[in-house]
Amino acid sequence: MIDIHSHVLPGVDDGASSLEAAKLMLAEAQKAGVRTIIATPHYSRELHENGMIDQVFDAVRNEALRFGIKLLKGYEVKIHHYPGRMPRDFSGLDLAGTKLILLELPLDSVPSYTPDLVYRVQLQGFVPIIAHPERCRRLGRDREMLEELLDAGCLMQIDAASITGVNGGRAKRFARKLIKKGKASFVASDAHRPYGYSVWYTKAYKKVVKWVGQDKADDLFRNNAADIFGYVDEGNAVDVS
Ligand SMILES: [Fe+2]
């Protein structure tokens, strides 16, 4: 499994509270069959520019190796209500050195400049991934905006916890719809703490197998990421027997 969205780095956002918590998250990821994690702290200018992220990343990467997990670096970039707070230049904010940028919508709205932002990201040569679209209540009601983002070439990443119902029935139904209609490209943990990580991930995988079959589930949990990131992940699929 390849987890492309995780808040495993301690002390840089609302994710892992300490290195010990990060280690517990790595143990949980290992249990779930995850062999590659992209650490995606919430982007902030301070975090990015003062080099703090590099020190924290190096410490957790070394711990991850003990669990047989390859740790890669990325960011989750929130689409603020106020466009002036967005970075102008997305270079260095990509997932693991690829051309992918993980963008997070507010939970309650889709800022009207979002299509323009997507275009700006693309003009810089990047491909936007919308993080957990199923959790954005406004997007669930605004089919036109959803189609506009998909037509523009945005990829969609669903949270495992949404699939298991942890984020509510509405998010689960929206996640199921996106997956069944083939509009989603990835499932990731978006884990902020050890609690629930392996259980939700494993349950989500089994649920997606039920919805669309094992081949498509493997695409969402591993193969699509492996294709994009250009390496083969050695993690075993979850036993669904
Ligand atoms: Fe996140």
Notes on the protein architecture:
- The protein is an alpha/beta fold and 241 residues long.
- It has one domain: Metal-dependent hydrolases (TIM Barrel, Alpha-Beta Barrel).
- The chain is built from 10 helices and 8 strands.
- The chain has helices at 19-31, 45-49, 52-66, 114-123, 137-141, 143-151, 160-163, 169-180, 197-212, 214-229; strands spanning 2-6, 36-39, 70-73, 76-78, 100-104, 127-131, 155-159, 186-188.
- The strands form 2 sheets. Strands 4-5-6-7-8 form a 5-stranded parallel sheet. Strands 1-2-3 form a 3-stranded parallel sheet.
- Helix 4 (114-123) links the parallel strand 5 (100-104) and strand 6 (127-131).
- Helix 1 packs across helix 3.
- The longest helix is centred in the last third of the chain and has 16 residues, at 197-212.
- It is globular, with a radius of gyration of 17 Å.
- The protein starts with a strand and ends in a 12-residue tail after the last helix.
- The chain binds fe (ii) ion.
- Residues 5, 7, 76, 131, 190 line the site of fe (ii) ion.
- The site of fe (ii) ion (FE2) has 5 residues, from loops.
